[in-house]
Amino acid sequence: MTEINSVKNEIKSSALELIGNTPLLALDRLHPGPGRILVKCEFMNPGGSIKCRSSLHMVEKARERGDLKPGGEVVEVTSGNQGCGLAVVCSILGHPLTVTMSKGNSIQRAIHMEALGAKCIRYPLVVGTYGNVTFADVEPALEGAMKMSEETGTFFIQQMANPDNIDAHYKTTGPEIWRQSGHRVDAFVTTVGTSGTFTGVSTYLKEQNPDIQCFVVEPEGSQPLIGCPITKPLHMLQGASYGVVPDLFKSDLMEDSISVTDEEAVHYKDLIGTKEGLFVGYTSGANVAAAVKLLNSGKVPKDAWIVTILCDTGLKYTPVPENLIK
Q1: Domain 3-44+165-309 has CATH 3.40.50.1100
Q2: Does CATH number 3.40.1110.10 belong to domain 50-156?
Q3: 117, 87 contact by CB (below 8 A)
């Protein structure tokens, strides 16, 4: 009977229990030292990205407050990952979901969301290209989500300004990193989209040890977080650095910004695959590139442990035929 009960305790009740508690992995093959790069394997979430965490937390908090009624409809603007996370959560909790997204974001994300029962409305590009989306390309999708919410009363998640986005990472991602690292973190680095991950994790880690340094990762030529003029609005980091400072960003948490070129992001994305056996996206490549740069910069001790994020799976980025983009 004890053995049967033990087996039962290993059974998850839904995909929601698969969200979070992702492994912290040392990239010792890619970077044998000095110093160490530790990565949070967020691509292992059921929606394929770190956005599953904030999706679950934002929906649960809206339900607790009564802002989202049982069976109530949900709408959100997304570059894809938040939509995929919400599709997981809404399918389990019984909320019809509509997502709005630029056609410049990879079609695999729309396919993923719709496979989970969501409706994905894709908006034509304004100035960007497929895989290179600017804030001008996001605005029509944002306006579409706002209009739907206003006209139909559908609950609008508003990840870009929702404090529950930060709270998700303050309560889960940050504490997991601190525990899994054995309380040894010298620096935390990550790309910034909504800033939920950076703000939530950095706040938690600095509360544990004020000496921990936190760095943002920005595409070279699109570094608004340190006040640089935007000279390259088109870059490969989908969902990151739209050339504006996010509402959720807290500059007092940031020591500095580390710039990464598209070429560096691709190079380290490929190295993560060939050296560590993991197929991840371009933001993950940028994060690891920035961690290597930081270890070589002299800004941290040579033996520092740097923690960063493998944000999502590379399966969301494979090239597609031109006719599917239009």
Answers
A1: yes
A2: no
A3: yes
Mention every residue, 6+ apart, whose C-beta is less than 8 A from residue 14.
92
Does 50-156 match 3-44+165-309 at the fold level? yes
Element (H, E) at 271: helix 262-276
Q: Are 257 and 225 in contact (CB under 8 A)?
A: yes
Paired with 40 in beta bridges are: 24, 309
List the chain pLDDT tens, one digit each, 326 residues.
455 555 567 899 999 999 999 999 999 999 999 999 999 999 999 999 999 999 999 999 999 999 999 999 999 999 999 999 999 999 999 999 999 999 999 899 999 999 999 999 999 999 888 888 888 899 999 999 999 999 999 999 999 999 999 999 999 999 999 999 999 999 999 999 999 999 999 999 999 999 999 999 999 989 999 999 888 887 878 777 777 899 999 999 999 999 999 999 999 999 999 999 999 999 999 999 999 999 999 999 999 999 999 999 999 886 654 554 45
CA-based Rg of the chain, rounded to a whole angstrom? 19
Could you list the beta-strand ranges (E) of the chain. 24-26, 36-41, 74-77, 97-102, 119-123, 155-156, 187-191, 213-219, 256-260, 305-310
SS3 assignment, position 241? coil
* Contact yes or no for 323/54 (Cβ under 8 A): no
Structure tokens at 24: 């912290």
Tell me how far apart the alpha carbons of residues 40 and 282 are, in angstroms, rounded to a whole number.
15
pTM above 0.70, yes or no: yes
Q: How many CB atoms lie within 10 A of CB 179?
A: 10
Domain definitions of the chain by residue range: 3-44+165-309, 50-156
Q: Fill in the amino acid letter for 142.
A: L
Distance CA(188)–CA(309), nearest Å, equals 9
The structure tokens 């956005």 sit at 51
Rounded Cα distance between 319 and 324, Å, is: 10
Could you give the CA distance from residue 275 to residue 25 in angstroms, rounded to a whole number?
A: 13
